[in-house]
């Protein structure tokens, strides 16, 4: 009979490998909370990471102290197979104070994303998403000049099953448009994001909004009912998610773009006051943003030296079409051939 003490020991070892309580709850489920809480008191004195120490110190007692002893063998097998998470050395919590100028921009972006989620019109949602990304990009240019040597940090996010890898394609597209790199470090949906603090905040907020919109469009798009009737729902949803992610990537890149010859950019009230000012800021800041992305990628390669690229297929034509329509509707032209490596979906 497996002893609960063994599981507590396993949890402590997992913590020493860089796993937080939230990480374990995502992989193993909340039922392990009582034993995780028993382990928590043993962790802080044994880990070097301030973030990891704080995460285990914050773990509150479970509402229900009981657990299913029948789960102990499977928990033991799962816990002893967990890899070392080297991104823990750079894990940093969101710390933006409400009075910070960046917080003001973030609140404006959040308001745009909430409005995008509330509208029933896909074209309006697209325009609001583009405006939110344009506002962030404008702020990124200014931010880059103010802090040109900002070092990359890491944050973790969670993707729920099913279709974890296909959901990751959307997160990867959002990352790529915002100077962040992401790695799927566990196939059950644990992702490490690497970039500067402001970029990570935006990626996490934007992806959460887009993921909710994707779920809405996924069930309400024209082909969903037909896929259910023909029992091809799984293929439809995989194809929908991939095409949605690809076209969202195009939409975000367009929102980021600045045409130096025409002096035009997607407008937002926080942009510099003239096209000349914007051109000057862009010419000075874009090399800084490029260096930031390079630093994030170099950090990723150091932390995760054995990466492979995800290869995902999209075979359902209705799913491809509906995913594109949901992401861009009438705003952008193009076809479904864009399912390419630009999304940089990587797995450890």
TrEMBL record:
Alphabetic keyword roster: Coiled coil
The UniProt record lists the DUF2786 domain at 104-142
- Judging by the UniProt lineage, the source's domain of life is Bacteria
Q: Which InterPro entries match?
A: DUF2786
Coiled-coil regions in this chain? 102-138
Q: What is this protein called?
A: DUF2786 domain-containing protein
Organism of provenance: Corynebacterium phoceense
Q: What is the lineage of its organism?
A: Bacteria, Bacillati, Actinomycetota, Actinomycetes, Mycobacteriales
């Amino acid at each position: 009979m497996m002893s609960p003490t063994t599981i507590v020991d396993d949890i402590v070892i997992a913590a020493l490998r860089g796993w937080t309580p939230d990480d374990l709850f995502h992989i193993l489920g909340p039922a392990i909370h009582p034993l995780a809480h028993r382990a928590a008191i043993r962790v802080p004195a044994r880990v070097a990471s301030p973030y990891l120490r704080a995460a285990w110190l914050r773990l509150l007692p479970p509402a229900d102290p009981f657990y299913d002893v029948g789960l102990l063998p499977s928990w033991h097998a799962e816990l002893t197979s967990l890899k070392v998470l080297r991104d823990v050395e750079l894990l940093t919590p969101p710390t933006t104070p409400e009075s910070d100028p960046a917080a003001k921009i973030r609140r404006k972006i959040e308001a745009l994303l909430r409005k995008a989620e509330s509208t029933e019109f896909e074209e309006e949602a697209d325009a609001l998403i583009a405006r939110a990304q344009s506002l962030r990009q404008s702020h990124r240019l200014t931010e880059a000049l103010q802090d040109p040597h900002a070092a990359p940090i890491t944050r973790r996010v969670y993707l729920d099953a099913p279709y974890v890898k296909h959901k990751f394609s959307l997160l990867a597209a959002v990352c790529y448009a915002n100077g962040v790199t992401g790695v799927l470090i566990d196939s059950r949906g644990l992702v490490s994001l690497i970039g500067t603090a402001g970029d990570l905040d935006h990626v996490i907020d934007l992806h959460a909004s887009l993921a909710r919109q994707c779920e809405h469009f996924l069930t309400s798009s024209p082909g969903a009912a037909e896929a259910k009737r023909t029992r091809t729902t799984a293929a439809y949803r995989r194809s929908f998610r991939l095409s949605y992610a690809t076209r969202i990537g195009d939409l975000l890149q367009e929102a980021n773009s600045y045409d130096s010859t025409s002096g035009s950019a997607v407008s937002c009230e926080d942009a510099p006051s003239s096209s000349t000012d914007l051109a000057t800021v862009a010419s000075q800041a874009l090399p800084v943003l490029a260096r930031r992305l390079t630093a994030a990628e170099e950090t990723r390669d150091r932390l995760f030296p054995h990466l492979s690229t995800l290869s995902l297929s999209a075979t359902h034509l209705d799913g491809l079409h509906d995913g594109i329509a949901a992401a861009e509707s009438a705003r952008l032209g193009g076809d479904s051939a864009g399912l390419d490596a630009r999304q940089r979906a990587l797995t450890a």
